[in-house]
């Protein structure tokens, strides 16, 4: 999405682009230990010692010149409401509630309309990357309701706020801020023109800056990786991400199973999501597959609460795990499959 440069920052970006003839490689920004100081809400970023240390680190790494970084933080605005959102206690919803809100009939019907409208390019991307068009549609549907809700926070405000005002995850957000500054330099765009979620996720697929730099694709060939307004770029970017994370062409995501919950199986269900068991090993533990899957395939055993106190059991296969890496939630992956099957009429 082409954006005009703000007058003050157009100079910033020109200077930054000219500051080195060699492309800057990403570096790990070390975690900056919080120091006793006045809160950001009172001082802003420029007077904060952690921010000043970060500026020196980034300048030394060649991300931007120190003067440009000082100007950036002088114009960034601390957003305390973002911290309030992040501090809200999270609750784990059961599948029957999550499914209603994220993969209900309205979402599936919206996915069918989106697929029909962009059928040609979605199918072209699917053929090229090996990821079904309906999976690409489903992810965009869950992330931003097909582009209708991409977030309105300036990343130049949200990322500094979280990097220096949210100690619990400061290391992660300082690294994403580092990636954002590199992205701004590489794209030659106004850093205050990027908008996204309160947590810094951008565009229709809600990529973080690091994901954008690694996997966003300029599929329509206009010279920009426009994940805000170009469906070809969005589809190819999501497909590229999934392919890079192991999506296998033609593979399934989930298969229903039957079992008697034993202490061993219950413990396995509660383990972290990894493909550390084969189908054959699960069979030996008493898991009965309701569809045919070769014994050598890797799988994760899990359950979905379909009604209060009622469960269905599944194994997630390789492509389940590929989507899980997009969002670390088994419910999220199950919702992606639900929408994709509703849109494509298949059996993922």
UniProtKB/TrEMBL annotation:
Residues 1-19 form the signal peptide. This is Lytic murein transglycosylase B. GO terms for molecular function: peptidoglycan lytic transglycosylase activity. SUPFAM superfamilies: Lysozyme-like. PANTHER family: MEMBRANE-BOUND LYTIC MUREIN TRANSGLYCOSYLASE B (PTHR30163:SF9). The active site is at 143. Residues 47-340 form the Transglycosylase SLT domain. Keywords: Signal. It comes from Eikenella longinqua. InterPro entries: Lysozyme-like_dom_sf, Lytic_transglycosylase_MltB, MltB-like, SLT_2. GO terms for biological process: peptidoglycan catabolic process. It comes from the Bacteria. The lineage of its organism: Bacteria, Pseudomonadati, Pseudomonadota, Betaproteobacteria, Neisseriales.
